[in-house]
């Protein structure tokens, strides 16, 4: 994996791209001082960089939790559940083309984490099934404003929406498992948010079982530079 640097707004961003199973990717990124990219970071870099560097499809660090108690889809940032249950276990389940079911002895911990993060506004509910959001409304739609914003980095979702609009995209597609499917599993299970680019169609996917395959992902490290610092 080649590690590079670029300047984006007030940040120097160190990044790399790797195609491999999720656990191998995350280990490679960590060895290079990088972390799995978030949806907000990827949208920001696509808009700021403006070229082809960050256009490829990427897995992200956002967990997708299918909660059997409420039949809701919960987006949990920073791979919090994956880290708790073990990313290798998630990958192994997907290699076998099955959902990663949260083990019974870890469910109370996961439920408590999810409930706490929802109450604190860190995690959020996503619609099930297929959802379309107008790119002109990324800043005000709850799903996109939560998924593509990062207050700590000063990233606003509408920046990515405007970028998508500049690429001729009036809507962005979101795909999560249908309630009928997740409800039929009768167990809590886990996946990851994946963000697509123009090599196929712009969109976000939180279903399917592909984390054991050689899919691509960006690893990044953001470091703030002085205002008015180096430009691209």
Describe the structure.
With about 230 residues, this protein is an alpha+beta fold. About 30% of the residues lie in helices and about 30% in strands. It contains eight helices and twelve strands. The strands form two sheets. Strands 4, 5, 6, 7, 8, 9, 10 and 11 form an eight-stranded mixed sheet that branches. Strands 1-2-12-3 form a four-stranded antiparallel sheet. A hairpin with a 2-residue loop joins strand 1 (about 5-10) and strand 2 (about 10-20). It is globular. The protein starts with a strand and ends in an 8-residue tail after the last strand.
Separation of termini? 22 Å
Percentage of residues in DSSP E strands: 25-35%
On the 0-100 scale, what is the average pLDDT? 93
Cα gyration radius (Å): 17 Å
Class from helix and strand fractions: alpha+beta
> Biggest β-sheet, characterized?
8 strands, mixed
Shape, principal axes of CA atoms: globular
Q: Which key features would you list for this structure?
A:
232 residues; alpha+beta; four-stranded antiparallel beta sheet; 31% helix; globular; disordered C terminus
Question: Any chance you could write out the topology, listing elements then pairs?
Answer:
Blueprint: E1 4-8, E2 11-19, H1 22-31, E3 35-36, H2 39-49, E4 58-67, E5 72-76, H3 80-85, H4 87-95, E6 100-101, H5 107-119, E7 124-126, E8 130-134, H6 142-147, H7 157-166, E9 171-175, H8 179-185, E10 189-196, E11 203-205, E12 216-224
Parallel strand pairs: 9-11
Antiparallel strand pairs: 1-2, 2-12, 3-12, 4-5, 4-10, 5-7, 6-10, 8-9, 10-11
Helix pairs in contact: 2-7
